[in-house]
Design goal:
alpha/beta; Rossmann fold; 38% helix; 13% strand; globular
Length: 316
Amino acid sequence: MAVVGGQSLQIQANALRLGIHIVVGTPGRLNECVEMTYLVLSQCLYVILDEADRMIDLGFAPQIESILNALGGLSKSEEENIVYEQELQDLNRQQQQNILPSYRFTAMFSATMPNEVERLAKQYLRHPAIVSIGDQDTSKNSRIQQRVIFLNSVSRKEQNLRDLLKQNEKVIVFVNEKRQADQVGRFIENKVHLRCVVLHGGKTQEQRVENLDLFRSNRVRILVATDVAGRGLDIPDIEHIINYDLPTRSIDNYCHRIGRTGRAGREGFATSFITDADAGLMPALKHYLETTGNPVPQRLAKHSAVTANAGVRNII
């Protein structure tokens, strides 16, 4: 079952009391259930941390550590000289005999490896095997064809969006603010005359689930979203990502957004609208395009924000 915020805690607690084999949850609500003993993890020996870097960014490190400490089994080997292969043999034997294993199995998935995530990995993972997915040279997805359209003003975005949406693809349109998401959604439905759904933090959990289901099942082929859809959204047949607004925080957000397409070995396409107001991201964007073998528009390459001396700009 899912144990997440935005839904009734009491209903979730009643379901947990009946016994659950697998819990998928968010750190805040899971930790709340553990603290109130609605969820007892002493017999839970398998844990997966997905989007670990994002959870750290959002300040959930204390909740994650509390949950990990509540789990059963040993997170680390008490004897450093225990051979990994021997532990695997013991685990297989214990499973065959229906005996709870002595050690916990922990897997951590993270698109980036900031210091805090690395610290968690060292503290809670035993014999960690690091698996990198992406281009061997850049660690980035070079199968996504990226195009940057430089616009003279923000007002030109609507017309360019209208032109792109005529291609009848399955598309996510990313914007930076909830209000902007609603405005772009209304423009697509009222002016472009195409159905779309909107996803942002202002929607209720039920609305988010319903809109994602419409998009996932191809009943609606256009999703307008903020960065709430930038991670953790695995819909394999998304053909095109459109950055109506470039992210303002860092190039990592751009990387996560376009990563909604070109998944699992497929090809993907991403188009980004850029104006002079995006100067803060321009150096990093130019570098990202170069390292993934995508063309850099001359106007971006020669922009003052990019050509400034390295001492007065920051590549994110």
